[in-house]
Design a protein that fits this description.
Rossmann fold, single chain
Length: 222
């Protein structure tokens, strides 16, 4: 079992890294193989809305995002981490998310499980965590929960021991959910409604976006 953590912070050793590492340590203690990849300093090109991914399944860019997509495809569990930047995720992580538009259209993370880790200097960490879990669900994954904490300076958290213990428990629960193939009625219901809207879009775009149409057809969703 592989659990991949994506660190969206521009700091490799900041508060979000501390929290995200605790999630992964919990997953590792539960028997999972874990990997943490930071986005700081990566070559992350912006989505230019060309539509090539919908048409062919391939992006026009050849950068680190493509490596990250391959890593994400191999993972059984995904943990996304970001500090609160203007009540949202960092530009680095948002760039990766925007480049995963095809993952949303085709629910490419169906069968995977996810979690989120978010921090803030003052407030908004829960809002950011919710944004991350919503993205994971829109890509087809089921989410098990979040770890959210306030910072007490760089590399330190408020109530740090409790925050890290909670994060480790989240990592353990993520592994358990994967093993149990756990379902969540509310998430599954929301996904079914979202899937119906996406089905209409995919069908409408069939001529201009044959790759995603063929994917839906192959999956038996049309």
């Amino acid at each position: 079992m592989k659990i991949l953590g994506i660190l969206g912070s521009p700091r490799d050793k900041g508060n979000t890294a501390l929290l995200l590492e605790a999630v992964l340590k919990g997953a590792q203690a539960a028997g999972a193989e874990t990997e943490l990849i930071g986005l700081a300093g990566r070559d992350l090109q912006f989505c230019v809305a060309c539509g090539r991914c919908y048409a062919t399944g391939a992006c026009i860019h050849e950068d680190d995002v493509e490596m990250l997509k391959a890593k994400l495809a191999e993972a059984d569990g995904i943990v996304l981490g970001s500090p609160n930047y203007m009540r949202s995720v960092t530009a680095q992580l948002k760039t990766l998310m925007d480049r995963c538009s095809l993952h949303v259209h085709c629910f490419l993370w169906t069968g995977k499980y996810g979690a989120a880790a978010a921090t803030a200097g003052g407030s908004g960490e829960e809002q950011v965590a919710e944004f991350l879990t919503e993205f994971l669900q829109h890509c087809g994954a089921r989410t098990v929960g979040v770890a959210a904490a306030k910072g007490a300076g760089v590399g330190a958290l408020v109530d740090q021991e409790a925050a890290l213990t909670g994060a480790a428990s989240l990592g353990q629960d993520l592994v358990a959910a994967i093993r149990e193939k756990r379902t969540y009625a509310a998430q599954d219901s929301a996904h079914a409604a979202f899937s119906q809207r996406m089905k209409e879009l995919v069908t409408r775009m069939a001529d201009k976006a044959p790759f995603q149409y063929e994917h839906w057809e192959t999956m038996g969703w049309l």
